[in-house]
Batch of 4 targets.
Target 1
Amino acid sequence: MTHALMKTRILGMGNTILTDDGVGIYVVREVAAKLAEIGRTDIDVAEAEMAGFALLELLSGWDRVIIVDAVQFSELQPGEIVSIETADLHTSLRLRSIHEMDLPTAMALGIELGYPMPREVTIFGIQAEDMHTLGERLMPSVAAAVPQMVEQILSII
Amino acid sequence: MRKISIDPITRLEGHGKIEIFLDDKGGVANCYFQVPELRGFEKFVEGMPVEEVPRVVTRICGVCPAAHHLAAGKAVDAVYKVDPPPTAKKLRELFYAAHFLHSHIAHFYALAAADFVLGPDSDPAKRNILGVVQKVGRQTGVEVIKHRAIAQEVQRIVSGRSTHPVWTLPGGVSKGITEAERADIVEKAKSSVEFAKFSLKLFDDVVLKNKAYLDLILSDTYELNTYHIGTVDERNRVNFYHGDHRVVDPAGKEVFRYKDHEYLNHITERVEKYSYLKFPYLKDIGWKGFVDGPESGVYQASPLSRLNAAEGMATPLAQAAYEQFYSTLGGKPVKKLLATHWARLVELLYAAERLLELAQDPEIASPNFRTLPTATPEEGVGIVEAPRGILTHHFRTDANGLVTMANLIVGTTNNHAPISMAIKRAAQKVIQPGKEVGQGLLNMVEMAFRLFDPCFSCATHSLPGRMPLVVEIKDPEGTVVHREVQ
């Protein structure tokens, strides 16, 4: 099925009072604004500050989901953007998260329980500088990545 | 753009870390445990109108927003010296019972069950809710999702939103419930009681009737002999929303109790040199290090603690479950930490029964859910039991109600010392001189950690940056000899 026929959701995840942990949400808000400008009403944009079991509800019913979230990997610089395959999460990390469940488990559980889970999941991570100080603004290093991330998403939908 | 694959030994920032130092003989000398903590809370709320704080703190934690909302709400009532009307308190407690349902269902089925239903040695790729569902049946999975959703729906009906509530006000709440909503909640509560009973039965069938699991629970690998703290009503029965905070000693005897505003008389915090973590302990007893026993001020705050610190449950089915709990485990207090998972299920049943009870209360749908404050705001403390332990919010304001001081002790913080000690104990059992260390290590350590249902810094997203656990074993020189990453 081509992308044009897929039901697509762009999902920003994060926490907007934890400084860079909000970047996924800020990105999708800008994506939504741009989509409105160009009259694209066929793409759904959603924000989620909760994960775990909620992922089942957030993902099911969509053919394709693009997720944006903050990450923290030691070899990346703040503001760097990476793409991650769900399969990578599945084989390289244990499926456990500290609380509830993580993305690969939610996907597999949804399929097991007969939910219509997406065929295609694309995950973008933006390297955070600080996710532990309370604050409602991005660090400049991370804010600088937002326009590029927005463009990247618009180019693939 | 860079594509990244996650290598199991990739160093992940923002993770929980356990460092195990070996002695010269290859046994465990010490265990240190660190997690990143939230910074800048006081600065963040400084100058904010204090009645805004309950709306902001819900977003500190994606897992227990309701707990923060209510603790902060109670603190704000205290700041304004206003007592909400009975309907408001009952509504808040009803809402909170639904939150406990949702949280305990999620923890038990997504995390705890896998260890028992599948076994601690099972394939890690299956040792999660997916494996549980595949083993106990798809219908159970459907019921889990359904009842978790029911609990969230009750929260939404009562407070207006299912997550991140915007509901408490100084002196009460912003909305009540209609008669139709009340009747709907009654039906949902009845279904939840049945599901809670089912969950306890599942635990009985799969865990208690399995000798290997029962032996694991009763073994001394997961055991601590500490004080316990829990909130109780006027008859010393567990209450999640309000009451006296009762502290019992390692023999189960009450040593003292305190009301919300008295917490600083009894709880103080220590910071260790190697860690920025705070380790709360009982002031009256004193800090003697990471040791248990009646001379050490280390205490636990968990579902097990709540049962140990109380004299019973306030609803009949939960009371029966409580009695069976103690008669199976040899009386009060229970020191076997894996029993915390069972205690969580006893609380699940209480939460469901309490939800039903409150939904049937004649005052619950009354329109009288707010008392307007009239006093000048000053200072207040609000304490509730979060699913993972006692939660304390404390604010001071100027005469206009703008925050000048804020302090928070979150549920898991109470347990920093016990978690460290439980991990060390498990590590000492697993790491023996000359014995090969493998994946079994991480799981034994995880079990010690996971039973506390820990919630650290509460980043809410679900990608790898979300609190993975790194366990490192170091020789006496500090060289890493083994590393496992969750």
Target 2
Amino acid sequence: MSKSAVIDSPKVPASAVKTPKRVNKHSIWYQMKENRACYAMMTPFLIVFFTFTILPVVISIYYSFTYYNMLEAPRWIGMLNYQTLFIEDKIFLITVRNTLVFGLVTGPLSYMMCFVFAWMINDLSPKVRTILTVILYAPSVSGGAYTIWSFIFASDSYGLTNSFLMSLGLLNEPIRWFQNADYALTVIMIIQVWLSLGTGFLTFIAGFQSLNQELFEAGAIDGVKNRFQQLWYITIPQMYGQLVLSAVLQISAAFSVSGIVTALAGFPTQNYCADTIVTHITDYGTIRYEMGYASAISVILFIAMVLFNNVVQKILGGLAHAD
Amino acid sequence: MKNGLRMLCVMLTIALIFTVAAPVIALADEADTAADMLTSVAPDSVENVLLTAPVGDETTDEVASDATASDTTTVTQENPYSRDNSYENFLKKYGNSAKPDTEIIIPAKDYVAEEGATPKVETYEGKDDILVWDSQEGKITWQVEIAEAGLYNMAMSYVPFLDNALTISFEMKIDGLTQFNSMKSFEFNRIFTNETNDFEMDNRGNQLRPEQIQLAMWQENVFNDAEGIYIKGFYFYFTEGTHTISLEATGAGVAIEYLKLFQLKDAGTYEEYLAQNGANGVFDTKGETIEIEGEKATLKSDSTLAPQNDRSDPKVQPYSPSKIMMNSIGGSKWASPGQWVEWEFDVEAAGWYKIGIRYAQNYLRGMSSIRTLRLDGEVPFIEAESVKFDFTSTFELKVVGDDNPYYFYLDAGKHTIQLEVTLGDMATSINNVENCVYEMNYLYRKIIMITSAEPDQYRNYKLDVKINDLIPRLKEISRILKQEYNAISAAAGGKGNEAVVLEQVYVQLDSFIEKPYTISKRLSAYKENITTLSAWLLNASSQPVGVDYLLITPAGEEFKNTQANGWDKLVHEVRAFIASFTEDYTSIGNTGEGDRTVTVWITTGRDQANVLKPIIDDDFTPQTGIGIDLKLVQTNLVSAIAANRAPDVCLASDAMNLAYRGAVMELSQFDTFDEVITRFHPSSMLLFNIEDGYYALPEEQTFGMLFYRTDILEELGMEVPQTWDDIYNMLPIVQRNNMDIGLLDIFQIQFHQAGINQYSDDFTEVNYLNKEAIDLFVKYTDLFTQYKLPNSYDFFNRFRTGEMPVAVANYNLATQIQAAAPEISGLWGMTLVPGTIKEDGTIDRTQTFGSSANIILAEAKDPEAAWRFLDWYTSAPTQAEYANELEATMGMTARYATANLEAFEMLNWSKADAKSIREQRQWGITYPSLPGGYYVARNYTNAFNAVISANEAPRAALTEWTQQTNAELVRKRIEFGIEELHFEAKGGWED
């Protein structure tokens, strides 16, 4: 938005011209004044973004160095929270492991599934495409739709899966899917994949729709032999933007899974088998009233997410500009 | 990695299931059919259960266990609780006897005997020689001389006492005998009215619901069926000679004038009515229409029939798109048989009138709600006995008589019109279906005694042979259901959407009869059908109608237009939408007026808030001059405190977590504190105690009770268990019959009964590591690992089907069973939890109880006023009124588990239940809330699950997790800098 200002500014060092009233055109203030219309238009968003995103992040970084129970004023305790977190908190490690499993399995899996589904559906006729899009997108729109899974995986013998496996004779007694440490995480991951197909998938559909068709013709002339070559050499490089956006969404979704864990497996989950970092934060923040500690955990989570995003963007960048 | 692999496996399994399952099922079915067709094939393969012997060959049933052998004996036994003693059977026996047309009055004062009733004979409510029986207990006997043998109806002239609102009910015996089951409980109604018909407004322009006050009015009511199944009054059979009639109080008492034996007269036909009133075929009375607002009813039989706000229609009177206007009456609350509403009106000129009722009935799709219409206390003609209100999604005008309105002759002067809920034609259907449900449940139990609740899919259990009357019984049920389905469909004009359930069930039963070998496979569907059928029953026996207003229009005039058109509706919706930006829907009633105002948050729900607010406005505010700002808030109190937006008082809140962090006010500083805490169980305050401070008052308290099915225990020849040993002894018998006992979480109870304190004396450790506790835990987990008791179940459904005839569950579930499982009414009981026998031979029933808390926030602006509110709120009169109003508004299932001991006695518990609950409460104990105390339950569950799911050794699991609990307790102590903790709860803490 500030492009015009940059181009217009003459390349004269400010010190060389000693006119007293001359304003430094490189100064941010000057540029803001020049582009005040743009800034005015950005202001509402910036205010909201600052108050509800930047400020909380900064504040929680501050809280992470304090003892704060939400009812009394915070008390500075330095690195103590981090010390406890890394040295004493065994459950934190369990939740880190769970979160990583979530992030590394459901993230990429649902990412790839989104892409493959979108790629396949894209070639269907518009009507069928719309219907399938709705079917795949619906779970993530209709907030509590995942509660249906608590029936499918109900823990007594009348639950769908249990009664089915029992009627086949594969099970003799019902499995408590969400209470059993051996299954809870897996089952929730399946549900999470189902649930997360939505937004990423929609982004990909949009990406496929906006591809430059001329390149495909050019590719055909240049000897693209099959759909996979087409995908690899033409489609993917064109879709860099969507790939990154969707990856960011998927990663943050996978790392911040908590609602569905709580709703399906309880809070906290049995023996912490499916607790994630975010539920651990909730545990400390709301049940134990240790907001300072909870903030420390969320700072760690924040850093981890930023790092992962960078890594993924590097990988995708490599992929998109492979040739 | 391990997890990834596991997930892959599960996904593959599921994929496999979906692809393989269908054909497998189909195969299994085919195999079954094949087995049936190949009955002549000799069974030589022991493994292949599918192709076992031809039907009837007992010897080849190689898997026959002890269980099945012993079952055959019980199967043929008659069920002692069967409904043989029903009124139907009574009528079959005596129905043809004479009905002598004489009237015999037995003055109540002439009783011949009484046991524990302590009645007085005195002048009461304007009548002399009245039997005042206010003790709520005992039995009174009268004598009657019968000249002519035969069937008589009976009635009683009585007036209720106004000091309570308990159900008035009696058990009757004639010559010391119960002639039919229904004699065990006769209910008599009270009479209520609006305190005022000029509805008051709060300061935001919302009308307030007028209080429903009881009237002491003499009524003569017939002894009839409380459930409304038998519409007419009951007949009682008397032979010639002297007989005794005794009434035993099972609810509130009454003052009785007389009992009467007589014959109820049926109303005549409409033609007879016209002839009697000299109709000449011309109905041309002219004049003004009389409009009666439904909400301004003069009398009603139930306090739930209070004026209501209905904002769904723009033509309701009075109307406001956003404010609360009292503009209708009834609705879902006016649904049970016997409930009536009466309006009074003035007729200026004598003549013929027709009646229209503007009503809404959007509850029973495809069916009608039925009302009996009475003018001046009489049913004018037989057609008025069942006036049908068809389903309608909006308010509509019901003209009595529909297209050919009935004309009623009214003299000039005052008249009353009364509408009473009746089941009408549905009554017999409901009775029959109810019997079917009972039978189906009975058969279900018979079947699972042989097959278990999860039958082997590949085995032919030959149920039709083992349960010798299975097929005939199924046929009979199917026949009745078919008959009722047709009857209901016919009545609803061939549609009968609501009755589709019946069809669904008899279709299944028919296929059972045709292919008995499929029963075991389709058992779960059968069970679901029972549940659906019970739900249908509940639905069908409720007859809701909401009334906006009544029109008494002269015969020669037209009814006014009452229908809202599309434009009206559009305007209405738009106005309501706009108002939603300006109306404050979180505040209830008046918002802070006067100098002293206390802000109170209520978190339980809108109904609770709506019930509480009028009580505050009528009682507390006038008494003290303190205004209460009641807010319905579902959000986090902590955030509110952090944002400095906290209320002064919070009802049903979290207490101790806040108290440890200095957010809650200490209460013992207030002058009346010592008096207030005597209202609760002595152990209650310990929950809210730190050092010498107390931070909350208890609101609701619940604890477990033992629920049992009398019919099943009787069938299995067992007594109600009193101790854990009784439970362990009955477990094999129950399980051999493929039923279960619900014993989840009894470990805590046993733990406390063993006399172990929850915490060590210095409160640094939880006492689970003590040897006795570990032994108990091992034994407890054995129930689930060795005995395979279900570790996750829906108590209500399993109890209702009888799959779980004995279970420990929270006592307030009793109302749910009572309200939602009518088919087992009278067949179950509730008693104290099983106990541990102590050395001196007494049984220890100790149990901890939980409690929600009422708190005053530390930042309260006017602590004294806040305390006065809490003092008032937790007092017995307020709690009783609140509880009873709540039950009146929301129904029986909303019964409030008040912590106030005196108020508890005023709730609608039956005497027996109240006694059990009271006794159990006496065994109640509590433990102080330690910082970090939430870890006890959490880690106990973790340990339990480690044993159940991960097969860990109970000893190791409990030890490991308890150590974590102890660590947390220590950690939290460090956080609060607590060196030493002690608690000194007044009265409670027993060692």
Target 3
Amino acid sequence: MSFRRLHIKFVAIFAVACLMGGILFTATRTEALRFQERSMLIGSSQAGDTTFYQISFIYPTTNVVGSLRLEFCDNPIPTLPCNVPPGLDITNATLAAQSGETGFTITQQTSSVIVLSRSPSATGLTASSYRFDNMINPSAETQDFYVRMTDYASTDATGSFIDFGSVTARMTVPIEIYAQIPPILVFCVAGSINDDDCQDTTGNFADFGELSSTQTRSTSSQILARTNAQYGYNITVAGRTMTSGVHEIPGLSTPLESFPGLGQFGMNLTANSQPAVGADPIGPGTSATIHADYTQANKFLLRDGDTIITSTGVTPTRKFTASYIVNVPASQAPGLYTTTISYSALAGF
Amino acid sequence: MFIARSLHRIFAASVLFALVIVAAFMDSVVYAQSTGIGFTPRQDITVRAGSSAEGALYVTNLDKKSAATLKVRVVDFTAADQTGSAELVVDTSADPTPWSLRPFLKVPDTVVLQPGESKQVPYTIAIPQKQGAGSYYSVVQYTAEGNSTQQVTVRASGASMLFVTVPGKAREQLSLRHFGPYVTAPNTTNGSFRSLFIGKAPTTIAYVVHNNGSVAEMPAGSIEISNIFGKQVRLIKNANPKRNVALIGQERRIEVCVQESTKQVRDSGGALQVSYCKDPKLPPGIYKARLSVLYGINGSSTQEIERTAIFWYVPIWSIVALVIIVAFLAFGIFKLRTVYVRYRARTKA
């Protein structure tokens, strides 16, 4: 065989091998049939409670079933190791009721596994339900846990399973009066915040002084926030431009530079040089991000309802400086122009 | 005459003195209202139809000098975008949202906090007997009262989120829209899904679900990452570590770290454990990510979402190395062929 023919054959085999490998890699494994309409009702969702679990589903086929295995885990994926949710204990569980496919009794039982067995018989496509009493919930609040269910032709849950599926439940935090301070969102706004705890603030206003048609007037206030909650926080701004009776100074709705002599009112949350006002945020809570429109130096705006600051998890203290600018034309009607800017802090969800 | 003049002088001096006192008093009556609060960011509770529950939300006045009079009201909210940012329905005349807690939730109208004082704001939730299963949520907003005639008055308000689940059969439907590695743009909460990574390995995986049901869903499950040979390289045990919620009608993006780590950050509020995504240090190659999450409230059907996504991680150095190897192989094959041709020629001769 010539080298050329050998070369062509090698390339062809290599290409086919790559193609087969790609197909095998991307192809999903054949899925066994899943129990349909699966659900679980628990009597109490509070951590540590002794309560009942009622598991319901529809057998997807009419196969002969002799046993049903229920395994309680901290994740639903059958191919992954099953870790028992801390505190969960079904050692003393009893089968209090059953409907649909019946005749089962508990034949194997540990702190996290129950095997129900019966004389093997064909299942119908009917809704079945099994209620277990004396189930002890996981001890961690907000713990998610899963029940992996598999059925078998054998009476002792051995051999290949026929159908499978999972149900999930979640523990909730009990309503209680906290003596300590668990999750909290700390937030303050002032003309000046002189510490990192919002305990020493100065004024709830900012003044421009006398407005001018030849010079930009600027001022600032400060915002501080932190949270020990995993939800993070969002801070929104609400407010309109400065008004005096029926007269108003036009507000900036998109980021724009300051132009003396034009009617403008706006703000941002960064250090500026024209005019020289404001400061960049300080503090260890660097995961709190400012909306891009409000971080452009020397550009100002104010859109009512904007979310100006966002954090997505536990966030240490971060202090922001809000810079405000105002310009008025020579034709601006005289008067006392005022506005109220409201900052609202809200947890994420 | 002298007496009259003296009396006149005394009277004028008295009036002047009184005016000075009044003026001084007016200057010192400065509007003072605390601008710093700490509050419970969020509570999740379960209340059965036909029953009621009582609870409390923690509120504290951080200001050590000024009292705080907080107006308390229940406000509805919707999702602002794909993140966990809420948009308050501030129009008090608007109809309650379909998931509003306003018909069921009672809170006090005002809360007065002395400087540095903390209180538990009590609330009562009463769910009617015929109320359908599902999710009901609103915020309890605290707003500082008071008026000011300053040019720019700044105000702070906070709001605690309340999520109430009424267990039972509910309409639950999450549709998966996207899944895969996700890259967030700097200084924004937006980004894009990518499947090819040349510079750095992906640090974040995300999935986007659209909620078409009547329950605010909190999907729970795992994400498994395996290489081209099917070997698991990373297991993200908790696919929703921050307990993100997909609100009713929302298209929600949930992000998780491929490799999460935590660091302790010293803060004025104490030491905080802050989580961040670290470089997963994946070797170059083709990877498959498998998402497996479940959702379903107590007593309702468990639904599941499964999806796989393929991504490539090909750092620059691996491309260079591959080019060098291929060039070396090509050169080697060329040299071998040359030797073989010469050998054949010699043999024929």
Target 4
Amino acid sequence: MDERDLFERYQDLQAYVDWTSDDAARIQRARRLIQPRIHLLVDDFYEEIEKHPAAARVITGGAAQVERLKASLSAWLSESLEGRSDADYVARRWRIGRKHAEIGLNSAYVSAAMSRLRNGLLDILADAQLARPNARQSQPRTLSGQFCASVKSINKLLALELAVIQDAYEAEHLKRERLAEQERSEVKFRRLIEAAACMVVILRPDHSIAYFSPYSEALTGYAAAAVTGQDFVMLFIPESTRATIMMHLEATLTGRPTKAYEMPILRRDGTQRWLVWNTQRLEDLDGGAAVLAVGQDVTERRDAQERLLRSERLAGIGQMITGLAHESRNALQRIQACGEMLELEVEGNEEAMRFVRRSQEAQDHLRRLFDEVRGYAAPIQLEHTLCRLDAVWREAWNLLEANRQGRSASLVESTDGADLTVSGDRFRFVQLFRNLFENSLAACTDPAIIQICSRNVQFQQQDALEIRFQDNGPGLSPEARQYVFEPFFTTKMKGTGLGMAIARRIVEAHGGEIAVGDVREAGAEFVVTLPRTIR
Amino acid sequence: MTRALRIAVADDEPVVREYFRKILPVLGHEVVAVAADGQELVDRCREENPDLIIADVRMPAMDGDQAICHICRDRPTPFILVSAYSKPATIPDGFGSIRWVYLSKPVKRIDLAMAIKQVCGRNGDG
């Protein structure tokens, strides 16, 4: 309430108790009697307070404070006896009332104390009355009337003062309660946010970040202090989706919330996480509208879905290829039969024999392709034995002797004494290493050098062996880095593009992981991590 | 080196029949019967009593494995089944004591040689 409202109310109260200028005049007359005795009233007032712990507890400053308070009360009493009642006066009295709430004084004691003052004031008037010389005994009624009128005026005055004090008190009390409630609510809000495993951000209409929850910090790698005030869209949204996101934010601000919208955000390290977002408009953030956005991390779910899709696709491809391969066998058998019979016919004819042999090689290649594709799509069944991986990769290297004919290629082992024993399917491991070697040999020009390093690591809380393959070839293009393990991806003219995809299947069937190594100046690097035992 | 065997062959493809006719002698054996379907194989084997049967699984009139069932009921004979499938879908019953081998198409000369050796062995038991 502003000062004008307060004054209007006061005037209304004055009318209510029937306050007139006559009352004001009587108060002023009474003042002459009361003024000299104010100090007695004040002393009595504070003596009484000390007898009541519930009231006295608000006085924490000892004797010095009591002295100050007495002076204030004295001034207050004097002022009230002036009989003024302008707007300024009312405003000041109101502030005094608020003070009572500020110091935490119970308003019941205010009423009781006021009553005590009233008694004191009336006693003074009564004493003065009794002390009057009995000069005009013939007119006792008038004196009595005058006394009663004065008493009524004092009562009206104190009623008005009390009303103002209590009104201010109540207003202040309510305000404090509201603030406390708001704080409690905010504490609850923050606890809720901190417990929730999702990103919670509040954005201003200009997309600047007003709130960034602790989980958001953990997920993105940015501290809240660092991002508060920054543009959320510029910082977290990949460029390609910015326009769409800004549209969604605008829609939310106009009261159309967004539900279950999947969108990636960029982390500090440059990687992406996929989240599903709900947004809604907040009515009042520092006086303006804002957007509350809550996002749940669904990256793993998406990855799982992708894997599922991939395996379904594989199953589809597998079926098709199996059908194709099967159909082809009869034709291949006829080709084989004719080729061998031709060989018998042209024995002695070197030129013709050469053609026959090349035809045979092509058939073998075709057959291997079918086998490879069928092998890729078929489920992998593993036979577990303890394998020494160095023996395994040497066997794989030897199997590629034919490939290495006429080439200068070498395998360098730097295993640093790491334990190379791993539990798994030996046949599949040979296949794995063979595919990795083949991949590098195909990419490298002579002299080709393939280096193997290994070390112990922890992988998903298990003991594991990490093997790094490095070659001195041209390395992987950004496209190759992304797709090298995808089936049918190949940069070579020959081959099915399944070698590395099969490698990944084998590694993953053993519970491990294969990945492209960090970008190097020269050559490609692949990192295979195999748990030592399969769970 | 396996002794010279008397072999019955069956396949619905003419080229493959011709192949067996030409290749098996090169491996040192004699082709005593050539059939184009399962029924013909049964009839010819009754006449010739071969030491070994090489038959395609999928054939008209009667499948190779079925034909061999009939034949072996009367007279157990080692056999080689050739099929476009990579592994046997079902293994015919009652072949427990007979030696047999399953080959996937396309079959090469060297595959045949090894299979014959496996089924009929060094001592030529059959």
